[in-house]
Design brief:
With 130 residues, the protein is of the alpha/beta class. It has one domain: 2,3-Dihydroxybiphenyl 1,2-Dioxygenase, domain 1. 22% of the residues lie in helices and 38% in strands. The strands form 2 sheets. It has a 4-stranded mixed beta sheet, covered by helices on one side. Strands 5-8-7-6 form a 4-stranded mixed beta sheet, covered by helices on one side. Helix 1 runs antiparallel to helix 2. The longest helix is centred in the first third of the chain and has 15 residues. The protein is globular.
């Protein structure tokens, strides 16, 4: 369904550290990194798309998090959700909802919510039973 997701950032080294740690937990691999542009992208080891990209906005304006926008990333299991949440907070993220079941979505939905250092809201979730 998605080709790529682009997340605007203001401090590339900080964002690269944050997202590199998070993508490592989720098993995504770095496809490219160009600090001169600056931007970087990750992909699944099993498919070329979708990509998750971070970078300075193309219009040259300051990146700003959108109200009501959120990016949800899949985790293979609940332990990976918990590891991703921990890595995000240690790497400068801010809690928006600790790991746990969210039965209002469905019986097996296990997710964690946080904001990256630029304020972008991220969810890491698993849809599989424990």
């Amino acid at each position: 369904m998605s080709s790529h997701i682009f997340i605007g950032i203001t401090d590339f080294p900080r964002a690269l550290t944050f997202y590199s740690a998070l993508m490592d937990v989720l098993g995504l691999q770095l496809k490219f990194c160009d600090p001169g542009k600056p931007w970087a992208g990750w992909m699944s080891p099993f498919a070329a798309r979708p990509l998750l990209l971070i970078g300075r906005p193309f219009n040259g304006e300051v990146a700003a998090a959108g109200n009501g926008q959120m990016i949800a990333l899949s985790a293979s299991d609940r332990a990976a959700v918990e590891r991703a949440y921990h890595v995000a907070l240690v790497s400068g993220g801010i809690c928006e909802g600790a790991p746990g079941l969210r039965p209002e979505y469905h019986a097996d939905y296990y997710g964690a919510y946080f904001r990256d250092p630029d304020g972008n809201k991220i969810c890491v979730c698993c849809h599989e039973p424990a």
